[in-house]
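RECORD TYPE: protein structure
NAME: Sensor protein
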Amino acid sequence: MSKRLLNAISFRIGLIFSLSVITILVVMGFVIHQQVVHHFENQNKNQILGKIELVQNILRQNPDNTPELNSYLKDALVGHHELYVQVERPLGHTIFNSGPTLHDIPSTQNMWTNWKIQETHYQGYIYQNTTSNTPQLVRVIIGIDRTEHLLFLTAFRQHLFIIGLIGTLCLMLLGSLAAWRGLRPVEKMAEVTTRISAQHLSERLKIENTPTELRSLSIAFNEMLDRLEMALAKLSDFSSDLAHEMRTPLNNLMTQTQVCLSRSRDVETYKEVLFSNLEELERLAKMVSDMLFLAKAEYNLNLNNLKEIDLTEEVSLLFDFYDAIAADKNIKLHYTGTAKVIGDPSMLRRAFSNLLSNAIKYAQANSTIFIKLEQHASSSIFTIQNEGVTLLKDQQARLFDRFYRVDTARQRKEDGTGLGLAITKSIIDAHAATIHVESDHGLIRFVIQFKNSPLK
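PREDICTED:
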C-alpha cells in the first residue's frame, strides 16, 4: 500500500467508516445471536419445568415403585421424543428412564446444567428431594435434546458472518464512493489553483454550489486571490513608477555631464555642473533611503524607544521649523487642543513632518493649515487640514501608494520622492494606529487615531 494512498483523505474516511460499520455489525450480530440463544434456553426451561411438575405429581400419587408407575411415566412423555427423563427412588435406584441410563450424573443438584450422552447434547434440570408421602430421597433428571438448536445456531452464525461480510464490503465500497464524491469540490479547487499564475489571477472559486464545510475556505481563498491581484498590480505600478522616478535624475546627470564634457570650460562652469549633479545625487540618495525604510517597514518596524509623547510640544516644534517655508506662500499655521500618545518620538516626528510638509506643498497660497488634537478616554486623534483641490474617491484610496501623485503634470515642479505618505502610513501602522484621508469642499484632512494603551 503506497504512502500516497495512506495519506489520501478519501482512504482515511473510507477506512474509519468501514471500521465503524464492522464494529456496529459485530455488536449487532453478537446481540442477535445472544437473543436467539436466550430464546431457545427459555423455551427449553419452560418445557422442562412443566414436565418436572408432572413427574412430581405422578410420584406423589404413586408412592410405591409399581409397574403402573412406569406406565404412567411413559404416558407423560408421549409426543415429547426429544425429552430425556430418569427417575431414581430411592437415590441410586433407577425406576424409570427414557433412554440410556445416565451413570455419570453431574454433581449439581436442583440446578440447571448441560450434559452429553453419546453424541446428543442435553440441557436439563436435576431435581433431588423427598416426596410428601414417603421419606425416600427421590432424584429426577429431565433434559431436552438441544442438538438441533446447536446445529441451527451454528448455521445461524455462519449466515450472520456471510451477511455481515457482504454488507461490510458493500458499505466500504459505498463509503469510499461517498468520500470521493464528497471531496470532489476539493479537486475542483485544485484545478482552479493550477490555472492561477502571475499573469492569470482572474480565476475564482464558485461559491454557489460549494458545500457548507468548504464555503468559508472558498471565500477566504477568493479573498486571498483578490489581495494577491491587488498586490501584484501595486508591485507592477511601483516598478514602473520607480523606473520613471529614477530615470529623470539619471538623465539629468548624464545630459549635464555630456554637455560639460563636449568642450573645455572654465572652473566655475565645472563647479556649477558638479553642484547641479550633487542635487540630483542627493535626490537619488534620499529616494534610496526612503525605499530602504519602506522595505524594512514591510517586515515590521522595531519600536525600541517607546515613551509618552506630548503632541502639543511636537506640533510647536514642527511649526517653528516650517514657519519660514509656509511664510513663502503666505500660509498660516494654527493648532488647537492637546493630546498625549505612546510612541517612538523620532518616527512620529518624521510622520508628522511628512504630513505638514505635504500640506504646505499642496496648500493654496494665502490659506491656513489647521492641526487639531483631541484626547479621548480610549484614543487620541491628530487631524491636519489644508485647502486644496478636492480629491476623488479613487485618488484618496491610492494616496498612500508609493510614488503616487494626484497631479502627474507637476511631478517635477514640487520637490520630493513621492514616498512621504507611504512612509507616514508605515510608521502609523507600526504604532497600531490608523490613518485615513478625507476631502470635500476644497479641503483635505488627514486623520490619525491612536489607541490609548499603558506604557510597557
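COMMENT: The first strand starts at residue 83 and ends at 88.
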